[in-house]
Amino acid sequence: MIVVKELYKSFGEPSVDVLKGLSFSIPSKSFVSITGRSGSGKSTLLYSMSTLDTPTKGKVLLNDVDTTDMTEKQIHQFRNEKMGFVFQFHYLLPELSAIENVLMPTRKTGQHHTRYARAKSLLDQFDLQGKYDRLPKHLSGGEQQRVAIARSLIMEPEFIFADEPTGNLDSVNAETVMKILKQVTRDHNTTVIFVTHDPDFAEMADHKIRLIDGKIAEEN
Questions:
Q1: 138: which DSSP letter?
Q2: Among 195, 175, 194, which residue's Cα sits nearest to residue 37?
């Protein structure tokens, strides 16, 4: 479960509150959308929940672990072991093959060899059989994003945070990626939280948060 308590995030001098006292909870294994107009605080909320940014005030608990009370070393370890990330751009390393990119998070923990079979299995699940050794430049945009999703799953995370994961894709590939992410919650018992501008993709979520000016306008 994710629990957010009185979350504030401020920027600038004098400071301006981008997130204004948000409180909510999300059950485990949920598929969660965060929506709102540009400047509403969507990505700021996602980054604050995922430890990629530090809240100005408030608490974020991930499965009863208070991430806002961790040291930097503890945060890095928790992030690597418990979280996966998918962004609008895939951020694959161009000199590494598809399977090597998927295995990148395992190098930090020395599990590169023991998780090789899992990497192949993930790529197979996402219809990338026979493309393990291809460099990113030899994959389509949709294939590159599927490799990025496989990378996010390699450590069997409890949470995946996705910021506009379909932003650089055409409509067909975008729908494929969203279906894969929703499938992840069922097949991998992972909570997936994603930011989107697309109302159709937001409707795919089983838990929805809509922001207006840094506050929750609607949650269901």
A1: G
A2: 195
